[in-house]
Design goal:
The chain is an alpha/beta fold and about 450 residues long. It has 2 domains: about 250 residues, Ribonuclease Z/Hydroxyacylglutathione hydrolase-like (Metallo-beta-lactamase, Chain A, 4-Layer Sandwich), CATH 3.60.15; about 180 residues, 3-Layer(aba) Sandwich (Rossmann fold), CATH 3.40.50. It has 13 helices and 20 strands. The protein has a 7-stranded mixed β-sheet with strand order 6-5-4-3-2-1-20. Strands 15-14-13-16-12-17-18 form a 7-stranded parallel β-sheet, with helices on both faces. Strands 7-8-9-10-11-19 form a 6-stranded mixed β-sheet, covered by helices on one side. Helix 6 packs parallel to helix 7. The protein is globular. Bound molecules: zinc ion (ZN).
């Protein structure tokens, strides 16, 4: 026998956890936290998830699709005897990200990150008896994201995780090639993310269509001002690489040590993969300028840099140099405004009114409404800004493409606020008779399919 249950995430974006079970053994895909600001109003709070998933049984293996908090964020609660797996670069990013997030937390997550095993794209695994898992490398705003093809009791489930095909990894029809190469035979169930089904109004209004277009537009914007502050997530590496490569030759490319570590880790791992030119050092900017004093962590930066065939160099930068040469700077919000003034704020105050601009490259929802992020809003502080962002998620036409490519018998939406809307969207309507809305905590037997 085989069954499927979405513990959480069938009708919300984030906080995902899905179970595939033979009855005796099970795997779990993701164990994520609710999105920031959502936990209060969520149907299932983060504090209830352990009980739901591990309350009656502490077995199984957890597969994380990627390093976004809404997919791995509750990892510290996973019982010690439950193995966890994640992509190799995703694990390296978490080694930097988790200590940073935990800097004021009592409970440190790094030992748990070190405990995570890694899977390999295109290699089948049998994590528990009766269930086989094939991780497939996929494009998303988190680098090193995976979808999973799962075989259980003779059934095939394709679980997309968060995906898209308009970033760097998705170029040249990669999605179609990967599916053609690795997914053979009929797919019984496609579980697909549907973030953009409930955010479709953003397409064409606040979003540029692709990472490539984002780069082109960035190049145009950077020509106009000497001091450029780019508000972008430090782990949105496709966008960061586009900003980096499109920094005009006469301006410095600047970030802080944390961002530099993430960037070089990604570039080193992508170099080893041997493709994706956008992840190589730019000829115009072989040196990245890093804010702050040099300390022991610089050795880590240099060590990674030295292990690369085409190394990226790092060098500290003075305010005089910033003033003289101008810059494109990856800026970050300050989450401790009462006790700390960030260098980004100091430099914003010094340079914004002297031919500066702020480029906002994150989800528009953080700027107002129920997801308003006060720290981001404080950085902008009522100043004019340019929005320049592309979605991390599949457009409706990409979901339709996925359905055409795998021709599943059943389609289950998740990671969307509007699962019932799927069948009514013109691009997806032809498949309405295969759609199945599966609510959180409701089991679906796969035996009769
Ligand atoms: Zn994600």
């Amino acid at each position: 026998m085989a069954d499927l249950m979405i513990h959480r995430g069938s009708s919300q974006i984030g906080g995902c956890c899905t179970q595939i079970s033979t009855g005796r053994s099970r795997i779990l895909i993701d164990f994520g936290a609710n999105l920031p600001g959502e936990d209060q109003t969520a149907e299932t709070k983060d504090s209830e998830m352990f009980q739901k998933v591990f309350g009656s049984r502490q077995d199984g293996v957890v597969y994380f699709t990627h390093y976004h908090g809404d997919h791995y964020g509750l990892f510290k609660e996973i019982p010690g005897q439950v193995p966890m797996y994640i992509g190799p670069l995703a694990k390296n990013i978490l080694r930097i990200l988790v200590p940073y997030i935990d800097r004021e937390n009592q409970e440190k997550g790094l030992p748990m990150v070190e405990r995570m095993g890694i899977y390999e794209a295109g290699k089948w695994m049998t994590p528990v008896p009766g269930i086989q898992v094939l991780p497939l490398y996929v494009d998303h705003s988190a680098l090193d994201s995976y979808m999973f093809c799962v075989k259980v009791s003779g059934k095939t489930i394709l679980f997309t995780g968060d995906f898209r095909d308009h970033g760097i990894v998705g170029q040249n029809g990669r999605l179609g090639r990967v599916l053609k190469t690795y997914v053979h035979g009929p797919v019984d169930v496609l579980i697909t993310e549907g973030t953009m089904v409930s955010r479709s109004e953003e397409v064409g209004t606040v979003l540029v269509k692709s990472e490539e277009e984002l780069g082109q537009e960035a190049s145009r914007l950077f020509q106009k001002h000497k001091y450029n502050f780019v508000l972008v997530s430090s782990t949105n590496l496709d966008s960061i690489m586009e900003f980096y490569h499109n920094t005009p030759e006469n301006l410095l490319f600047v970030c802080d040590l944390y961002q530099a570590l993430i960037m070089i880790t990604a570039m080193r791992d992508m170099e080893r993969k041997g493709c994706f030119l956008q992840y190589r050092p730019s000829r115009q900017h072989r040196v990245v300028r890093v804010l702050g004093k040099t300390d022991s962590r610089w050795a880590w930066l240099r060590e990674i840099g030295n292990s690369m065939e085409n190394p990226l160099k790092f060098c500290s930068v003075t305010e005089e140099e910033l003033e003289r040469d101008g810059f494109v700077m990856l800026a970050r919000k300050n989450t401790h405004p009462d006790t700390y003034q960030s260098p980004f704020e100091t430099l914003r105050d010094k340079f914004f009114d002297r031919d500066g601009q702020i480029i906002y490259s994150m989800w528009n929802g953080y700027l107002g409404g129920k997801h308003a992020d006060q720290d981001l809003l404080r950085f902008i502080g009522g100043r004019p800004y340019q929005s320049l962002h592309t979605s991390g998620h599949a457009y409706v036409e990409t979901i339709a493409k996925m359905i055409r490519l795998v021709n599943p018998k059943m389609i289950i939406p998740m990671h969307t606020e509007a699962p019932e809307k799927f069948a009514r969207i013109p691009e997806l309507a032809p498949y309405h008779d295969r759609m199945r809305v599966l609510r959180d905590g409701v089991g679906l037997s796969l035996d009769g399919l």
